[in-house]
Amino acid sequence: MDCVATGANVKVLAKAIHSLSRIGEELYLEPVDDGLALRSVNSSRSAFASFQLSPLFFQRYQAPTDQSFRCKMPIKSVQAVFKSLSSLERSVEKCRIQLNSEKSRLTITLHCKHGLLKTHNLSFQDCESLQAVFDKESCTNVLQAQPRLMVDTVLHFPPSLEEVNLSVSSDRVWLRNHVEDDADSSRAMMTELCLSSEEFDHFAISSQTSITFCLKELRGLLGFAESSCLPISMYFDEPGSPVILNVTDSVLEANFVLATLSEDSHSKNHVNSNTKRPDAEQPPDDFMSDDMDSFLIAMETSELPGPSHVPTSPLQPINNRKHSASDDEEEEALAERPPNKKFCSLFFGSVLPTPSLTNQTIQSQEVLASDSEDENQTETS
Amino acid sequence: MMSKLSLGGKQSSGKINNWVEPSFGELLGGVSRSLKKGPLSGESKTAEKKSRKRKVDPYVSDNQITVSSEANNPDQDEPWVDIHAPQSQAELAVHKKKVEEVESWLRVHLDKSKKGGAILLLTGPSGCGKTATVQVLAKELGFQVQEWSNPSTTSQYKTEDLFTQSFDPDSRFNRFHGSSQTGLFQEFLLRANKYSRLRMSGETWTEDRKIILIEEFPNQFYRQPGCLHDILRQFIKCGRCPLVLIVSDSLSGDKNSRLLFKDVLQELGIHNISFNPVAPTSMMKVLSRIVTIEAVKSSGRISVPDKAALDLLCSGSSGDIRSAINSLQFSSFTDNSLERRLWASKKGKSSSAKPAVKAKGRSKSSKSKDMQDESPAIGGKDASLFLFRALGKILYCKRESYEGTQAPKLPPHLTDHQRDRLLVDPELVIERSHMSGEFFNLYLHQNYPDFFSDVEDIAQASEYLSDADFLTAEWSSRSTMLEYGSSVATRGLMHSNSSRAQANSQSTAGFKPLHKPHWLHINKTYRENYQTAQSLFLSFCLTPVSLLTEMVPYLAKLTNPMRNQAQIAFIQNFGHLSQKRVTGRLRLEALGDKDPGILDADSENEDSCAAQSLDPGTTQANATTESNLPNSQDPSGELSASQPQPTSTEALLDEEDLLIEEYDSD
Predict the structure, then answer these.
(1) In this structure, are A171 and A82 located in the same domain?
(2) Integer Cα distance of B500 and B497 in angstroms
(3) What is the pLDDT of residue B583?
(4) Domain interval for residue A73
(5) What is the pLDDT of residues B586-620, one digit of tens each?
(6) pLDDT band with cut points at 50, 70 and 90 for residue B477
(7) What is the pLDDT of residue A49?
(8) Distances (CA, A) of B477 to A181, A282, B480, B484, B666
(9) Sign of the CA dihedral B220, B226, B228, B231?
């Protein structure tokens, strides 16, 4: 086997290997005629990742004569070859991967600038082919989004969070952290984000459903997709069936298959149906929190330009917010939800000190203003 | 330089791999064999599990072994413990009741759909079929086994530098995600518990029921068992499938399972099933079956061992069936050049043992001597002795009579030292008991008087024990002289017993009970007392010996009221060195058959240092007693000695003025 990657493709290859290191401990390598397959699976066999690099990805690609060759190696040793990602693109001109069958070695040679040559000889182990059985066409729900949207969404969850819950309806997506039923609810912090269907490039939901999966493996894919600026497609079905995350390019295809939490007993379905009712009532709460965010941003921006014009405009939102707050209290009689929302908004307001993040929040404000207009129109109608 | 060194290291590791692979590793031939026969799913599982296991796991293989002459060469490199793994309960070498106990537990907890995890703990010596039982039951009852294996952390790469340099400033999302073994274990347990396995290509196994099997524990848990306890408590709350823990006993007892689970067995409701070593009859049956299959398969290339050799293997492995099968595989190959060289080297070892026998001055070797010499040559496991049997071998020293003309002649004035030949090698007995010589001597010292019938013999034996103690008196050469001390003690005891000098002499009493050393109890009491004294009299900053033998008796002589209640009680209890003899018989703790001779929490060096520090203490105590007399005669000296202490404690203990009346009442 002999394949040579040049230029920016070396960085893409390195990013792919770093994404696979989030999944499992071993890298499965399988060169075939239609490209090089890099795969990984975690120790509990609940997450699988596969990168298929076509021959066009490489400047030169030569498949091994032995078609049944496949091997695996510790992913940390491959990761050590492609370390210092920030300087990889600047210094490495070419990357060559060769297979030395006589010595049972995989040779990775990095051709750097100024004639510098780095050669790494990695030992491998023969193994069987590793391939998860999944079918994207049979999934009923399909989402496609730009990686920036997904990264912005997942950034709100703390790194120590293990599981995340994704709920979809006909026009909206909720993402919240999953807390075990036995856990003390007063101690757990609930985080929830709501995304409209207009945020997505492709939104095809045929049934309302809710799936729970681990967040650590998802972060591995998002890191790769963000650096390559490729859209992410999600294919999922009912709870218990695996969710498939796909990133496709003309020369590259990545598939992440994550197992989801299955619900065994009927009582859980009953609890789930109960939880779905507050989902329908949550959009007004989200608008309240959005108004709070816009109010905070308006207060911040009022300091920068002329103050004489700005104080008049916040008065009207305050009056509107009071009326909407009193109306919501009379309608829902839910005393616990508004304090949580206010606390979340105040917390996120204090979390954003950087002006660049403030600008991004302003951009999100512009997007969310249309939602409030939609709500006003629906209320008037 | 670093690259050259790393390349050299890799080359040397490659060479080692090349040497190790023909016996145990997977070759390309092995892969081709898997392609020829056997389902892909079984082979892929075997490959996956083998790669993750550090040690050779004999019972994981799912391959169906078919006798085929075409695949003889690849079979030759497979370990027999993998090829001949048991496929059904009939092939298990485990007692039927144990298998039924495990099966009933699994049936109960696999079919329950209620929330809350169940934990099963399997303990027993290594090689007794714990993992094989779980694998066979998984096949018969129809559930998956999801197994944790410790990740191999390559310390060659510096993880800190690796993750620091892998930081990508272009991405706000990429963070350092290095995780410890404990974190990885917790993640595995969460995902294996809640999430079902993804279906891989080639897998035909579609069972949805499964158990989690843990045989290797992260190293952090042995240092801090609390981490494991917290993870298990969390698992108990939200468990969905059973958790099976397998812990092998160590040679000197069940330290591993006791260390990990002694606190939480009752709290978490862990069900414990302990396995016994494999019975010789079951092992003989398994070895015979393997020999029959391999003889048919090899068609004469393998030398078929006879029944005597199999008996020898069974006795040599002492219940470890993995060791027995490996020894059988090594001893059966005759035509392979590599195995021939290995066998020749082992024959060389066995031939080198015989000159040692000759060097001992013995002209003839008996059957038992042949057996002892031959079992290490085959590669048998070191047989460990329980402490009870080890002591019995020394105290009931068995002998055999010489032939008529072979007995060495002693001069007439040394005829009382005439002894028959020993059947026991005392150095070997101490080695197999897995104890230090000093500790073994403690047990001998406690138990030897019951086995002697003559006071002169007891005097001579105690002389030898004193010589053994003297050999380790010098601290700088103690580590070297320990073995000589134990040799002097054991051989001296066996030689001094004149009632057992002849091989045909009948012992009068059959069974004599053995006891644990009273020194352990005394040492424990001493340690408790000086720790109490140290905590009560912390301000004096004295060593334990000085505190207990000088200061506390001196304080008992004073009428100083500046003491708190606990200190006064301690002084009254321990301060007066009475001259009375301790009457009554000492109650000794009996040594049972299976007692492992557990050391206390202290290390051996601390015990020996504490034991030696007792001797100068008595001398100092006598000096203190003599020095107390002039103090009582001179009242002005006593007052001058007690004056500085009230000034130091007067400010802190003003409320102690009421205690003067108590002393006046005394």
Answers:
(1) no
(2) 6
(3) 58
(4) 2-126
(5) 656 677 655 555 544 333 333 333 333 333 333 33
(6) confident
(7) 92
(8) 64, 80, 5, 11, 53
(9) negative
Interface contact A66, partner B, CB < 8 A: no
Cα–Cα distance measured from residue B136 to residue B142, given in angstroms and rounded to the nearest whole number: 10
**Residue among B10, B24, B44, B173 with most chain A CBs within 10 A, to mutate:** B173
In a domain, A134, yes or no: no
Given A85, A127, A222, which is nearest B168 (Cβ)?
A85
Q: What is the dihedral of CA A341, A343, A345, A349, to 10 degrees?
A: 180
Residues of B in contact with A264 (CB under 8 A): 113, 240
Chain mean pLDDT for chain B: 64
CA angle A27, A213, A155 (to 5 degrees): 90
- All residues of chain A having their beta carbon less than 8 Å from the beta carbon of residue B148 are 43
Is the domain spanning B94-152+178-196+206-274 CATH 3.40.50.300? The answer is yes
Are the CB atoms for B72 and B45 separated by under 8 Å? no
Give the model's pLDDT for residue B403.
Answer: 66
Largest Cα separation within chain A, whole Å, is: 81
Among A206-220, B32-46, B432-446, B566-580, which stretch is predicted with the lowest mean pLDDT?
A: B32-46
**Which residue among B26, B162, B199 places its CB closest to the CB of A126?**
B26
Mean pLDDT across A179-197 = 70
Structure tokens at B483: 């073995």
Confidence of residue B377 (pLDDT cuts 50, 70, 90): very low
> B302 or B627: whose pLDDT is higher?
B302
Q: Are residues A50 and A148 in the same domain?
A: no
pLDDT band at A306 (very low <50, low <70, confident <90, very high): very low
- At residue B67 the predicted structure's pLDDT band, cuts being 50, 70 and 90, is very low
Name the minimum distance, in Å, from the CA of B387 to any CA of chain A: 42
Chain A residues whose CB is inside 8 A of the B77 CB are none
DSSP, collapsed to helix, strand or coil, labels residue B460 as helix
Q: What is the CATH number of the domain that holds A149?
A: 3.70.10.10
* A257 Cβ under 8 Å from any chain B Cβ: yes
pLDDT 10s digits, B499-528: 777 666 655 556 778 887 878 878 878 877
pLDDT over 70 (residue B439): yes
Mark yes or no for CB contact B154/A42 under 8 Å. no
Are A218 and A164 in contact by the 8 Å Cβ rule? The answer is yes
Which residue does chain A place closest to B25, by CA atoms? A125
User: Could you tell me if A219 lies within 8 Å of chain B, comparing CB atoms?
Assistant: yes
Give buried/exposed letters for B89-102 (b at 16+ CB in 10 A, else e).
Answer: beebbbbeebbeeb
Same domain, A83 and A172: no
Using alpha carbons, select from B622, B197, B312, B265 the residue that is nearest to residue A46. B197
* Contact indicator for A62, A44 with CB cutoff of 8 Å: no
Asked if residue A226 belongs to a domain, the reply is: yes
Top-ranked range on mean pLDDT: pick from A142-151, A269-278, B233-242: A142-151
Q: Do A130 and B199 touch (CB under 8 A)?
A: no
Which H helix or E strand runs over A218?
A: helix A215-228
Of all residues in chain A, the one with the smallest CA distance to B181 is A25
Question: If pLDDT is split at 50, 70 and 90, which confidence band does B97 have?
Answer: confident
Domain boundaries, chain B: 94-152+178-196+206-274, 280-335, 387-401+415-516, 519-579
| A235 in the same domain as A156 | yes
What domain count does chain A have? 2
Tokens representing B216 are 């290797």
B51 min Cα distance to partner chain A (Å): 9
Domain final position from A126, A149, A171: A126
| Domain end call among A261, A277, A297 | A261
Q: Evaluate whether residue A339 is within a structural domain.
A: no
**Closest C-alpha among B507, B503, B495, B440 to residue B469:** B440
Which stretch of A15-19, A322-326, B409-413, B560-564 has the lowest confidence by average pLDDT?
A: A322-326
Assigned domain for A162 exists: yes
